[in-house]
Amino acid sequence: MIKFFNFVSKDIGIDLGTANILMTVKGKGIVLKEPSVVAIDKKSNRILAVGDLAKEMLGRTPENIKAIRPMKDGVIADFNGTQLMLKTMISKVCRKYNAAKPRVVVGVPSGITEVEERAVEEAIIASGAKEVYLIEEPMAAAIGAGIDVSEPSGNMIVDIGGGTTEVAVISLGGIVISNSLRIAGDELDYDIINFLKKYMNLAIGYTTAEEIKIQLGCALPLMSDMTMQIRGRDLISGYPKTILIASSQVRQAISESIEKIIEIIKTTLEKTPPELSSDIMEKGIVLAGGGALIKNIDRLIFERTGIPVYIAEEPLDCVVMGAAKTLEDIEKLKNVLVKSRKRR
């Protein structure tokens, strides 16, 4: 039987996100927040950079170096790259906080398969962890947003991350109903890239698309249109080109993906038991994840569902803070953990 006590102050909580990795050390708060990017020398398989430094290399590397995002749709797409990235980041945190062979709680999408679960476990164990515990991201996000998940009352959390949108109704420490949609922040970036190719004959990279999304992304028209200058490659001439893009154009580009996110929220509400629906109507829907920062997305969800919508205080940090809170009160919250594995 697994013992869920004696967790020491060096245990680590991880949000293994498609776009960013966040880590907490018990008693220290968030100690690492970096992009989920790794740069590897192809010949020697040696790590050249991770996080912010590796992200700067995206789209700029010579033939012998690959800079990649090894996570896709919330799960591991490149096992070797993920393992090297995690090993570097976990080692960095362990050295700084003197945490040898830590126990780790890591958030995973609710729609993850057993094969994908095993890949996460193996990557974390191979990175130096003594034990790894998995917690579903919507549950972690709810805990991190300050929701009391143990009470006999319905709460709805919508976590719009980089690779997945997680929608869940939680009551009595468990997920009553959930849906996982592999459309989220990354898909919005692709939408912007494709829109600029189709309507403006401009090719841009993912980093530029992400900047556009952060600055101009909106789900409903803004009081006044915002604009920004962007640089890319003209698809007709092949030369570098600078253009002006407006928030109304970005809204048009991402509207289809936003609609799919709203549809999965509505589908989840339709399948929710009546008693819990009543609780959600009273308490509202809580938004977490980077997608919660898309301007007016809360207003649009309210318009489509008629249910009040609240954005969590620190939406980007909810999953990792939920993992941290689980570590702090492991006896009370052990039922929210979906799986565990020890180093052999």
The largest β sheet comes out as: 6 strands, mixed
Q: Kindly state the percentage of residues in helix.
A: 25-40%
CATH-derived topology of the largest domain: Nucleotidyltransferase, domain 5
Overall structural class, as computed from helix and strand content, comes to: alpha+beta
State the CATH architecture of the largest domain. 2-Layer Sandwich
Summed up, the helix count is 11
What letter string, H or E per element, gives the SSE order? EEEEEHEEEHEHEHEEEHEHEEHHEHEHHE
Name the shape in a single word: flat
Top CATH class of the largest domain: Alpha Beta
Query: Uncertain segments of ≥5 residues (pLDDT<50)?
Result: 1-9
Assembly state of the chains shown: single chain
Radius of gyration: 20 Å
Strand content: 25-35%
Strand order of the main beta sheet, please?
3-2-1-9-10-19
Query: How many domains is the backbone divided into?
Result: 2
CATH superfamily of the largest domain: ATPase, nucleotide binding domain
Number of strands: 19
Q: Roughly how many Å apart are the termini?
A: 15 Å
Average pLDDT taken over every residue? 89
